[in-house]
Amino acid sequence: MKNLKRYISVILVFATIFIYILPYNKVYGSTVNFTGRTSAQLQTAINNAHNKDTIVLQNNITVTSQITIPENKSITIKDNGTVKTIGRASNYKGVIIEVQNNAELTLKGSGKESLIITGNKISAAEHIIYVEGGKLNLYDGVVFENHEGIPVDYTSSTSAVCISWDGTFTMYGGIIRNNTNYRFGAGVYVADSNSTFKMYGGIIVNNTSLTGTGGDNSSGGGVYANRYTYIYGGKIINNKADEKGKQGYYGYDGFGHIYSDAIVSDYYGIITSIVISGPSTVNVGSTIALNVSVKPSNAVDKSVSWYSSNNNVATVDQNGNVKGIKKGTVTITALANDGSGVKASKTIEVKSVLVSRITISGSNIVNKGDIIVLKAAITPSNANNKNITWSSSNNSIAAIDSVGTSVIVRGIKKGTVTITALAKDGSGVKASKTIEVKSDTIIGEAKYITVDDLINFETGYADSENDPKFKEEYKYTHNPNSLNGVTLDNPMGYVDFRDKWQDIAYNQFSKVGTYTIQYRVQDNPPTAAANSSFANYRYYSAESTIYVHRRPIALYSIAGTTVTDSSFDLDHSISHSTKGIAKWEWQYINSNGIVEKYGASSKADGVNRANSWLNAYKGVQYKLILRVQDIEGEWSEPCIKESGEISRPVADFIFDKNPMIYKTDTQRITDMSFDTNGLALSYNWTVTKGGQTLLKNTAKDISSSLNQTINNLYPNVVGIYDISLKVTNSAGVQSDTVTKAFEVIVHNQAPLVNFDLVSNESPLWNFPKTIGLHTLKYRPTNSFFLEEKTKFYVTVSDPNPENTGFRYDWKLERFDVKNIKDISGSADNTYSSKTQYPFTNSFKGQGMPWGAYRITLNLTDKPPVPPYVSGDAKTATVTKNYYIIPELTLTGGFESSNSEVVVGDTITLKAKTNKETENVICSFANTNYVLSKTNEDGNFAYWDKDITIPDSITESGTYQLQFIGSTKYGGNGSVTREVRDNVPIDIIALKLINFRITSIVNHPHIPFPQTMEMLKMELVPYKAGYYVTFKIDSKGKPDQVYGRVDIGNNGSINQVINLTKVASGGETETWQGRFYTSAYLTPGTVISIKLDCTKGSVTYNYNVKENWDGRSLITEGSALQDGRINLTN
To answer: Burial, 921: exposed, middle or buried (Cβ in 10 Å; 0-12, 13-18, 19+)?
Structure first.
């Protein structure tokens, strides 16, 4: 024993030094969770522990060396709630635990026999516990057992517990059993000096002291009191030794004192066996009863303690009633309370009545910002675990708050979401309901919208002239201080896109006020000279007015069962008597399935109803919900609170731009979060795009960081950005996560383009212009001649300097019409070009026919990809109409039945033209003759006109027939061009005119002259035998004029008279001739005069030309009747 003390002293000195040099920053009386498994590790923990520390064993300890509680240290050792042992190793014979001078060791068990210190029935020369001047405290749950002490010498005893050198052992509970040694005190040996043992409870049982090696009788097998011993309570029973009456307890020389509450008996009946009977299965939530029978029948204490191997599966009370907790297998043990250590166990299977079906009832539609309540019905009704877990497939569309088998579904944004109820009993049974969240985007004629709402503009375009749309723009006029004439409290200022025309249609407005929206669209009139100006706008839409306001805020607090409503609307929180609130809607839901809903007529009315619910349904979990409606008709987000909950803050924010135009706009986020109790907030922002987290930030305003994040994504900046915000108040309560989205777009404005078709002749043509036989008389506006060289003059610019070029797409549509205004329907021909200039040539040279042309240029820019995509390319369209005047062809001629044409002859003028020739005239002898179209074939038109060679031609010779074809194509009624063809014609200018009979001898009763016209009406009476004188004028200076007399008008010429020229001057000569007939002509004989003249080989037959048979005279008598023979007088 002395060597052992020296060894301990060394350890103490080392431990003292070690503890001394450690910093004292640990609180005394702390708990040390010890995870070691060896005595050496436990010793280190003890050395490092502070006074009053409790070491909780997490594992069993194998003792291979002495565990020492050093001087002046107080330590408690206990188990962790499960059975733990500190046991001697097979090769270790020494003391298990020594409590040194002024040290204190307290041993406690958490359950029945849960901390066991055992010698493992290994023969040893030393004690289990050696208290040398220190203190040992033993409590319930601790067992000292199975120590086998071997004889050392006559004066020593290797007892289980030995107290010496002023040591003190106080036993408040616990068990000391089944230990053996030689001579005395197998259980407890109170050795010497001022050692003290006090027993207030616990059991010392079945300990045996054997006969000493010298043959000395043994005594005090349970307790040997060699010094101060006080047995105040507890049991010292059935211990063994040699000396009768001293077997269990022996008080040496009067040092022992036994009090009345203690039981000391060497023949106390203890339990030797236990049998458990009863069911082997139990349902979850149900209870079964187990019973025990013990032997022997004369056992004094037949009570047992019950415990379960796993209270999470089944519990057991001290009457043996087993309650199933969850499905599984468990061991239920009954342990004898008499300290004998006898116990029995029974395996119990816990079965579960699982949920087989869940049915969800409630609406399948919820509006954005509204709530609905769903309820789950559980089948079967006796299912052990009716608890369910609610979930939403997308919390950004619909969020949930559950109470028991009910759930509140709150619409967040438009979409479809699945709400699922899953049984918690492990059955895997679940039910789902599809919920549609409506009214995220306002469609139709919206008047009142909130700063969160998305709107769509509906526009239309139609043009009676079928002109294409050229451009459309929007203008937003903003009054931030008034809402439909009502003054706004807490205005937010102007939006920065106000009061200017722009081609962006904003679908979200970040600031309150009255907005007047104008829309205008420009068509593309083909004749516009400069259609990049809005001066050519044909239509302005009627103005549309919308009113943008903030959503009201539902806000209340609960103190006990009293509700205070503090709801308000920022737009009317100052000037309006109810702070802008018009309606109140309260809902109450509790874990018993109670659902109440109430629409209140006033704030007080709603508060009274909410208070009544809280007072009527006490002691249950609940959720209380308030929504309010502002005077504009908009409902708030619900304010939801539950029993015992600190009011949750509300996270909210708005965007300044949606969409946000990259490189034009910067995004500004305005925080609108608040705490219902006015507590300070901290922020947790998350920015994602396409599922990738881009930014996490805890600042209140993340606008700058957000814009930098967007810029850093170049070139992949476009897309939908999801902004999520969760706020936490200073009490640590978190809000729901609010997620909103805005779109970043790249807005590529359309290029600006114009073109003109201009003449490419050098020098430029002036009109009228003659080219050969062609005369270009008049060129209308936007018209060119088919053979005229032209070019396209194109001007292009682009507002976006990033664009890399242009794509040209020309479409030239030809219409086979006479006038530019007649363009309609489908084109007869279509031509295309992909170059900047379709051609620099005449239409004729390009192989393109005349006609009205609708020329369209689609100019498409080329934005860089990325950040743009191919669909971001913009096209500007310009359409103009031009007329290409056709060329004309003309071939003239004439036809005559005579081989030579003489003045007075009839000829037929002939012309052949292309079909575009509208008119043909022939200019001849100072007269314009209009030819008529007589026929057409596939390519040509044919014209003719009969004319008489006029008398005005007095000279024979070659004359010109000047044919002129003309057209008005492309004009406005004026002739646009002519073509000529000169055809020579040879004319002999020979003619007789003005025949008259000037006198007849002895015919004084007849007036002379008698002209051809008079003779055609009535023949002149004639007395045969008298002279007849006649005259005729000539043109063309004939060589000779002849008169031929046909007496009897029978076609035979009786006389030929060479007329004598009697007058000459100017263009006309006068010829005279005389003849007489026989005086014996039969009365009634008709005399015809035929006239002709000759010039060279040409003869002019007057009678034929005048269509006159020459009948002039008719006989009515004879000169013989007058007695005249000389006919000349």
So the answer is: buried
Residue 864, preceding peptide bond in cis (omega within 30° of 0)? no
Q: Smallest Cα–Cα separation from 541: which of 465, 441, 442, 445?
A: 445
What is d(CA 565, CA 628) in angstroms, rounded to the nearest whole number?
Answer: 10
Residues paired with 874 in a beta bridge: none
The answer to whether 134 and 161 are in contact (CB under 8 A) is: no
Asked if pLDDT for residue 450 goes beyond 60, the answer is: yes
- C-alpha 777/C-alpha 785 separation (Å) is 11
Distance between CA atoms of 128 and 640, rounded to whole angstroms? 63
What b/e string do you get for 870-884 counting C-beta neighbours within 10 Å, with b at 16 or more? Answer: eebbbebbbbbbbbb
pLDDT in tens, 730-781: 888 888 888 889 999 888 888 999 999 999 999 999 999 999 999 999 999 9
3-state secondary structure of 931: coil
Q: Are 500 and 475 a contacting pair, CB within 8 Å? A: yes
Judge contact between 150 and 179, C-beta under 8 A: no
Listed residue (83, 152, 70) closest to 111, CA to CA: 83
For residue 291, what are its two tokens? Answer: 């019973």
Across residues 235-253, what is the average pLDDT? 81
pLDDT exceeds 70 at position 45: yes
Given a cut of 80, whether residue 20 has pLDDT beyond it is no
873 close to 861: Cβ distance less than 8 angstroms: yes
Distance CA(338)–CA(186), nearest Å, equals 19
Residue 54: CB partners within 8 Å, gap ≥ 6? 29, 30, 31, 32, 75, 76, 77, 78
Strands 469-479 and 513-523: antiparallel
> Mean pLDDT across the chain, nearest whole number?
87
Task: Give the DSSP H or E segment for 726.
Answer: strand 719-729
At 176, is the pLDDT very low, low, confident or very high (cuts 50, 70, 90)?
Answer: very high
In 454-493, beta strands by DSSP E: 454-455, 469-479, 482-483, 486-487
Q: Flag whether the pTM goes above 0.90.
A: no
pLDDT given for residue 185 in this prediction: 83
| pLDDT, tens digit, 9 for 90 and up, residues 670-706 | 999 988 778 899 999 999 999 899 999 999 999 999 9
| 195 close to 166: Cβ distance less than 8 angstroms | yes
Mean predicted confidence (pLDDT) in 577-604:
88
The three-point CA angle 661-663-667 to 5° equals 60
Sequence-distant (6+) residues with CB within 8 A of 1115 are: 1021, 1022, 1023, 1024, 1077, 1081, 1082, 1083, 1084, 1085, 1087
Q: Which of 402, 568, 571, 540 is nearest to 473 (CA)?
A: 540
Give the integer Cα–Cα distance in Å for 539 and 521: 6
DSSP string, 401-428: EEETTEEEEEE-SSEEEEEEEEETTSS-
Alpha helices (H) along 66-195 = none
Residue 602 makes CB contacts below 8 A (sequence gap 6+) with 584
Residue 188's beta-bridge partner residues?
Answer: 161, 223
What confidence score (pLDDT) does residue 353 get?
84
* Amino acid at the residue 726: K
Q: Where are the beta strands (DSSP E) in 931-1078?
A: 932-936, 940-948, 957-967, 977-988, 991-1000, 1010-1011, 1020-1024, 1027-1035, 1040-1047, 1055-1058, 1060-1065, 1068-1076
Secondary structure letter of residue 734 according to DSSP? B
Q: Summarize the confidence of residues 290-300 as an average pLDDT.
A: 91
Q: Is the distance from CB of 505 to CB of 455 less than 8 angstroms?
A: no
Q: How far apart are CA 81 and CA 317, in angstroms?
A: 17
Structure confidence by residue, pLDDT tens digits, 606-628:
999 999 998 888 777 888 999 99
Per-residue pLDDT at 19 exceeds 50? no
- Give the residue-averaged pLDDT of 9-37: 51
In angstroms, the CA 337 to CA 15 distance is: 41
- Residue 451: pLDDT above 70? yes
